[in-house]
Design a protein that fits this description.
It contains four helices and no strands. The chain has helices spanning 3-19, 23-31, 35-41, 47-54. The longest helix is centred in the first third of the chain and has 17 residues, at 3-19.
């Protein structure tokens, strides 16, 4: 499995979790990703996932 496939799967996890209101999980998972992975993920994230990462809860 290539890096692109892994990033797509990981973005799917972020998108699902954010739809379920799990912003704390999203932030924890995001914080555990290297910056290079974060850069690859950003274009794949939904608006909901981006909002969850930026929320202040």
């Amino acid at each position: 499995m290539g890096d692109t496939t892994n990033c797509e799967k990981l973005a799917g996890v972020f998108n699902r979790a954010s739809q379920e209101g799990k912003s704390a999980f999203c932030k924890m998972l995001w914080g555990n990703q290297p910056e290079t992975v974060q850069d690859q993920l950003k274009p794949l994230l939904s608006q909901t996932a981006i909002a969850a990462l930026q929320s202040e809860d």
